[in-house]
């Protein structure tokens, strides 16, 4: 008779493969974030026009925030729907406040 705590070898292989894929995604994401940071620093150091550099840096920063949330904060995993909903709701509320204040100041 099998023990309650024993796990089927196929389940162990599945978990091992799943963790391996997750680690691979995290390493690739980390490498991309390092590359984006190097691109941003090199653009600033090269002395390019601010109107060209600032939007690109903002886009690279937004992509890095997305990577951080999705891969490193595990927002893509099951069971994280409510924290993700609360976080994205807070981001949306902050965005609305910034837009409203911008309209009030510049109108």
UniProtKB/TrEMBL annotation:
Provide the transmembrane region boundaries. Answer: 27-45, 51-73, 85-106
Q: What is its main location?
A: membrane
Where does the record say this protein resides? Answer: Cell membrane
Record NCBIfam families? CoxD_Bacillus
Q: Please state which protein family the record places this protein in.
A: Belongs to the cytochrome c oxidase bacterial subunit 4 family.
One Pfam family per UniProt: COX4_pro
This chain belongs to the protein called Cytochrome c oxidase subunit IVB
Provide the topology term for how it sits in the membrane: Multi-pass membrane protein
Q: Does the UniProt entry include the keyword Lipoprotein?
A: no
Keywords, ordered alphabetically: Cell membrane, Membrane, Transmembrane, Transmembrane helix
């Amino acid at each position: 008779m099998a023990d309650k705590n024993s796990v089927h070898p196929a389940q162990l292989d599945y978990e091992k493969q799943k963790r391996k894929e997750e680690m691979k995604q995290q390493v690739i994401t980390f490498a991309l974030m390092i590359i984006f940071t190097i691109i941003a620093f090199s653009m600033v150091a090269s002395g390019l026009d601010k109107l060209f550099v600032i939007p690109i840096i903002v886009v690279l920063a937004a992509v890095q925030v997305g990577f951080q949330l999705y891969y490193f904060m595990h927002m893509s995993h099951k069971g994280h729907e409510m924290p993700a909903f609360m976080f994205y709701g807070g981001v949306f509320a902050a965005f609305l406040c910034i837009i409203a204040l911008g309209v009030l100041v510049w109108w």
